[in-house]
């Protein structure tokens, strides 16, 4: 009994200190610095686009002021499939981020969350709604990945797809930069009217006669883009 009380008191103490930290962070929220998060991928066959965007969505859902958060995806494979997956994620994030805030869920990777959810939660209306949206996104991305191309009706929905009209190969293409969510745009809001984090796709220029230095070169390009912004 004494051990149980000791553990309970310890847990209550930790919860109290965490609550105080959160209150202090809330008080100084306007003074928190901007945070840039870089995610690198290189090959959609080795690093499936669905896996990549689950990472992206978990980062976008950080418990941090969205207007001070920017997420950059460096696609060193220059794949239109990865770009399409990120575009789908940008749409889904408008529903996923409010869901994360409302229920304070962990983990915040959708795939990981849905794989660990309990039966009681899985019957709730909110869960069924967000799960349906995720399943639709997953189906769209997986279908495009299996086909190895983006359906024509989808390509017409975003001007960014036109960048791949002049791409000859993953090792020979121009710089591609697409801002899918602009955090400073007052209209970049989720379904609850809250600001969304900035979300950027980047594939640096590659030419056969220049050594690209693999992911180190991709990271240099990201840093350059950040300072130029």
From TrEMBL:
GO biological process: cell wall organization; cellulose biosynthetic process
Organism superkingdom: Eukaryota
Major location (coarse): Golgi
Any one GO cellular component localisation term in the record: Golgi membrane
Keyword Transmembrane helix among record annotations: yes
Annotated residues for binding of UDP-alpha-D-glucose: 47, 76
Alphabetical UniProt keywords: Cell wall biogenesis/degradation, Glycosyltransferase, Golgi apparatus, Membrane, Transferase, Transmembrane, Transmembrane helix
UniProt topology in membrane: Multi-pass membrane protein
Keyword flag Secreted: no
GO molecular function: cellulose synthase (UDP-forming) activity
InterPro entries membership: Cellulose_synth (IPR005150), Nucleotide-diphossugar_trans (IPR029044)
Compartments where located: Golgi apparatus membrane
Pfam families in UniProt: Cellulose_synt
Its job: Thought to be a Golgi-localized beta-glycan synthase that polymerize the backbones of noncellulosic polysaccharides (hemicelluloses) of plant cell wall.
Protein name (database record): Uncharacterized protein
UniProt organism field: Stephania cephalantha
